[in-house]
Amino acid sequence: MERPPTLVPVADRQQSDVLRPNGGSELRPPATRTRVKWLRLAVVLLALALLAAISTLFGMLMAVASDLPALENAAEYRRAQNSVLYADAGGGRRGPAIARLTGNDHRILLSQEQISPHLKNAVVAIEDRRFYEHRGVDYQGILRALVQDVLNRRAVQGGSTITQQFVKNALSAQNRRTVLQKMREAALAYHLERKWSKRKILTEYLNTVYFGNGAYGAESAARTYFGRTLDPARYGTPGTPPNSSRGVLDGEPLAARLDPAQAALLAGMIASPSLYDPIQNPRRARARRNLVLRRMLEQGYLTRQQFNQALAEPLPTRADITPPSPDSADPYFSTWVTQTLVDRYGAGLVFGGGLRVTTTIDWPLQQAVRNAIRRHLNGVGPSAAVVAIENRTAEVKAIVGGDDYLRRPFNVAVQGHRQPGSAFKPFILIEALLRGISPDRTFVSRPKQFRVPGSPGEVFRVNNYENHYAGITTLRSATASSDNSVYAELGLTLGTRRIARLAQRMGIETPVSTNPAMTLGGLRIGLSPLELAYAYTTIANRGLRVSGTLATRPLGPVTIERVEGSGRDDRNRVRAQRVFPTTIGEQAQQVLAGVLQYGTGRAARIGEFAFGKTGTTENYGDAWFVGSNRELTVAVWVGYPDRLKPMLTEYGGKPVAGGTYPALIWRDVMLSWIQLRDQRRRQRGVQEQRSLAPPVPSPPTAQPGTGTAAEPPRRTTTAPAPLTPKPQAGAGSGTSGGLAPPQPSAPSNSGQAPNQAPRSTPPSTPSPSAPTPPSRGGGATPPSAGSGSG
Length: 790
What we know:
Blueprint: H1 30-72, H2 75-79, E1 83-90, E2 93-101, H3 117-127, H4 139-152, H5 162-170, H6 179-195, H7 198-208, H8 218-230, H9 232-235, H10 260-269, H11 282-298, H12 304-311, E3 327-328, H13 331-345, H14 347-352, E4 356-359, H15 363-377, E5 383-390, E6 396-400, H16 412-415, H17 425-434, E7 442-445, E8 448-451, E9 459-462, E10 471-474, H18 475-481, H19 484-494, H20 496-506, H21 529-540, E11 544-548, E12 560-565, E13 568-571, E14 574-578, H22 582-598, E15 611-616, E16 622-628, E17 632-639, H23 661-684, H24 776-779
Parallel strand pairs: 1-4
Antiparallel strand pairs: 1-2, 2-3, 4-12, 5-6, 5-17, 7-10, 8-9, 11-14, 12-13, 15-16, 16-17
Helix pairs in contact: 1-6, 3-10, 3-11, 5-6, 5-7, 10-11, 11-12, 15-23, 17-19, 17-22, 18-22
């Protein structure tokens, strides 16, 4: 019997069931349902991926946007101008340019017009032929590079544009970068092209790209590879040194004078400076240069005649190469001032902010100092370091830290810590005067020994130079003769800690040791010529320590008068601090004047009032003369800068003491200063004012150590009558106007230096009548020249 059809309730059926006449149902296959689910999931994931991509792109653009102002506003790219140091012309005027500040990379930033069109065209032809067509990223170039890499099965061609390379250089990125970093650089390049013109991008690229052999930027590269060819008068010929006397801004940049062959060589080196180095790989360098020339011909940058001429040009040889060096007429001074500027303003502003810095250097005096050193030490062996500081302002007017910066860049004048010997004794003298000890107090000059405090029986033995002893002598005479026995006893009686504190209040920056030998200048850490010169200015200013708002350190010497540019105009203003009373300063000056009048420094006499002190260390390893006239303080050190070598025969077969070469150099420098001073006074039409004490700031009176200024200087009347020598015209030999002292003539016996060497006869000077030496203390007569440690 046939069963009737069964009806399934609607509620019990699935939505996909289909009723059939027999009550069966037909369901959709499972594969269909799976496809629907995956489709829905794919749509959701695609939406999320799109959102993530948009977020990532937005984040990348924001990151790029944050980098762009930093790159765009970087001082060296915003202004494309190096800062320049100028000498002081006096009266607040700017003198000649003496240095262009280029940083450790020696980058000399040029404007668009200062770069040869041949170099611009060569770089575009070989590095980015579509530079003027793309917008920072060359997609055709990327595709072409990819095809070449696939065909050659290795990376043979890059796809980065000049803009991308500039961005990479500006961000100091590494050669091996991640994909994300390259995408970021590409985005930044795109944005930069919307901000800068093509000409500016190309100019800044050429100012920063590396050309090998230490040359960063087009101008540095032009000087390195073609300086001797393009400007032999300045950069010398093969085998001769460069001429540093020419102004650093003289003439047009060498990068503007490059011919097609020279430009092609430099452009070809950018891809791999070492691989295409004309010295290390001349064949590859020539092939690469010729490839660049061919590309320039193909792209219409050269005519056929120019192309053929360029192919025939030789490559630079090893003798033609002049490695980059500071762009300075005096690197010792400029590098020191540069560090002061960097500490104050930051490296970015100093090396790329276009600052115009008027320094304190007196260029004719600077040349005169070098001439004086050369006159006495040329071919002798040791070298000299000299610092000259104006008393009234604490401005460094001349400084020589060495004789060959490229070979020995160490600045002895600033960084050299050498034992001062007896040049340290004025600090003991002033401490004694402060304690009420009269210059005419008597002491016994004889061999002495002292027990070292705190030691198990250690003894400090003291002997005089050449075992010469004066017997009963005064402090005044002991200072003139540099008597060790007197000063050792005096220093130990006063206390070495007191003396050390006084030296630092007067301007010594290096920590002063308190060992017994410090009484004779035997310090654990030596002093620099700069420190000694600056501390002696406190004596010249009669107890007033002068500094300025732009000093090298708080209450230190001054090297900068004015800084202009980048929205600033900073001027130095004099600051002063009273260290000891004026009367003590006057007494110290009169006592130290005896060193020149009848003591160990007779060779330094200049014909007008001056004071100073010789210094000679044990075994003649260091020799000093430090002293002042009423306007200038000069410290002279003579020795071997790289080692402690005894100078036993360098002074005409005799030892070098403080009263020999140092005193003679000091004298020549002072005579040059007097000549310059008098010439300038005549030019200004100002009647010469002669006084014994140097002019100093005139703030209100204050007690010692209060940090406030003191009363103006008083005139004194006990110095010898001023006799200013008349230097011979044209005696200078420097190309920058340096003036030399008078030519040598036969000196009088009274002015002869101790152990005078025949080859170094000092320039003649009037012989002022020396005052009669003090006769107190048992009738002691002034010691003979050369006695004491000098």
